[in-house]
Amino acid sequence: MKIVVNGEAAEIRAATxxxxxxxxxxxxxxxxxxxxxxxxxxxxxxxxxxxxxxxxEILAPMQGG
Length: 65
Hints:
The protein is mainly β.
């Protein structure tokens, strides 16, 4: 199905946010996630469905000085 990940069109097979994270190589990454503008906690990713047309944001923490 087609979705948007971090502003880029993507063709995916995942049915849940957790599956999408694994498909994109973020399974063990420490990141924040949002689906259609709503933040999704790590504990809820398995139960968060992904549908065609969804907009997913995956944000890595930034460090600096």
